[in-house]
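Fold it.
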Amino acid sequence: MSDPLPTADAKVAIPASLQRQLAEFQRKLWRTKVLEAVAAGAIGLLVSFLVVYALDRVWQTPGVVRLAILLLGVLIFAGFGPWWLHRWVWKHRREDELARLISKRYPGLGDRLLGVIELQQAKGGEGHSARLRMAAMDAVAAEVERRQLDGALPPPQHKKWLLTAGGLLALTTGVFLVSPRSGRNALVRWLLPFSKTERYTFTRLAHPPMKLAVPYGEPLSVKLTLAKDSDQHPGHATGRYDLQQVTKADLIGDSYVFRFPGQQEKGTIVFKIGDLRHSMFIEPVQRPSVESVIAHVIPPDYLGIPERTVDLKLGGLSVVEGSRLKIELTTQRPLTAAVYGPLAGARAETAGELTIHGNVAVTPEIPVGREPFDIPFTWTDEFGMTGDSGFRVKVDALPDAAPTVYLQGIDRQKVLLPEETVDFELLSEDDFGVKLAGIEWKGEFTRPTDEKPAKGDLWLGKGGPEERRFSKNVAFSPAAFGIAPQRISLRGYSEDFLPGRGRVYSEPVTLYVLTRDEHAQMLKAQFDKNVSELEDLARRETDLFDENKRLEKLKGEELQTQENREKLLGQERAEGESTQRMEDLKERMEKLMQDSARNGGIDKQTLQKMAESLRSMQELSEKDLPEVEGKLGDSADPSSTPEKTSKDLAEGVEKQKKVLEKMQASIDSARDANKRFEAGTFVNRLKKAASEQDGIASTLVQAFSRILGVRQPLLDPSDQRRLVDVTKQQLNTAADVRWLQEDLAHYFARTQMEPFREILDAMRQEKIDVGLDDLTKELQVNHSFQATDHAKRWAGKLNEWAGKLEGKIAGDQGAGGGGGSPQSAEDEDFEFMLRVMKMVQTEQDLRARTRALEQLRRSAENSMKP
């Protein structure tokens, strides 16, 4: 049974066979174009990646270029595919669109297909019956069925494009397989064009610097080392500094060393090593130098002085042993590293690092021993540049030297009476501070006595760690310290802060503290010397006077000859020497006069004669002799006329005559004083001998309990020594008494003064010389009791004779003053002056002793302080 026929208004369907053919055509079209779109997009992305990869092999592809390549690949993938699909898929969904595509290849068939599609869509009301439309469509369907529509498809490109995409994918895969790191690196740089990822090179360096500071003007050496993971190891490399000549370097080990000439301007070196292109910016700078060096010196604790800072401008310093040092270097640029050592010259070789704060580097504490040493330093600045390798600091280790102490303003030997005061200065110096200072004295008797020698010290003051110089004025008075006449060894002492050193002493000063009798004998000896020199000056002046008188006989013209003028000049110089000698003698006589007045045991007439002689010396040295010298100088003046020359010489001779008269008067007064002085010394010498005999007796009495009845070989060593000393003293006293007897005899022969004859006769009658010799023998065999009795007896006799002689001399001198007549005005004036002089001396001695006692009080108070 056949299908019912459609009505005229019914819609006629396209035959199934035709629909089937069109659907197959559409499927083939879509499949081909979709494959083409996918292949094209893949090609775009792969080509974009490979272009970046290829460019990176040649140069450091900029981010902008990589972005452009990426956008182009993405555009192909994201732009071309949709457009392609829109054109071939979206626009070929309906039968009429497919018919139009077919008509491009088969125009007739296509037109008929379009007609069938139009008939299928047309309605019966349009004048076409359904049967006729169906018959037409069947006819077209039969025609299509007889033909293949594949020929109407656009030329297919999908296989070629897919093959291309496959090839590019294979190439990309090969890149990742052959060099995964370069592939990953290119992928990152392709996907992230503005990332900081450096391009991958098969030649890789181990952390090459991008910027390098080099020494200014010095030959430049750059070392580049291949990384351990470098794929390639080119045997050669090149480098070029700006437009300068290319420098080549060979691979040695795993490094290239490029050497360039010294540079003074900034520039860039471009290195080419295989596929690597590396640029390095070069900045020539001066080497880091030291601007200042400071040493922080920490002294030993016992010195008690604070840390001090020393500016080492000369590169060296001296410090005491036991100190510690910290050296501070300040450079012109910040540092990254600094070391010191090893210490050259030190026993312990040490080295260490410095603590760095910017451009300041400080060493740890460096101990200072006994040996000097050098501290070498090396440092590296922020540019990796080293400083002067020869920089070093020289350290001299100084021992803590002992202090020095001096007594200044005092003679090495000095004679004085007990009440006199010696003023001097104690000076102590130490390199690291004086701790304390003072004086110390020790006495020694020059004759036997039962008294103990003086011994003591006086603490003058404390110093301090910073007080390197200690000075103190000292007033030393034997009477103030209770020191009897004896020989005193006086010295200063000082201590510093070094533990265990103790006192350091000055050179000793010897003070001879004399009795008045001993002092008078000393003055007599000095006076003898002064009188002798005065007489010698007078003889010299007489000789000069004779020569001047010989020259006076010449005429003026003769005096002006060269020879005689030289003689006059010689006379002038000789007169000047006499003036100077007289000035020196006058000063000694003034000192002798003062000491004689201080003694108190020298009679007034002797002092008066000394004063007369001194007055003449003063006039001679200050007026008379200079006038003679001046006249002789005028006579030798070459500008003078002959008449004036003769006149000046005559006046000089006349004045010189008066000088000789005054000299003789001064000598007469001095001789008279000396004779009186000598008479007075006999009393002192007798008293001194008596005192020594008393001292011998006292010494023996003190030792009676140990030496009486004991034979000398059995005595205690100390008693033996004491007995030997007493025997020696007795021998000296016996000799002094014999000399005294001879001097008395000579003096009486010269003066015929009766008191001296009486004493001399008494000494001879008593046979004192024999008695003293017997006393010596008794001491030698330790007949100490008899020796003591005889010593006391002779001491009494000597004192008796001294008293008689002293009384006789005083009586004779009083009678010589005029038999009780009133004193002259001149005598009264001198006596008044003498009293004033003694009062002044007494007051000065009192004040000086007060100063000495005040020093003693302060010393006692300070010694009690903790």
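The CA atoms of residues 440 and 457 lie 4 Å apart.
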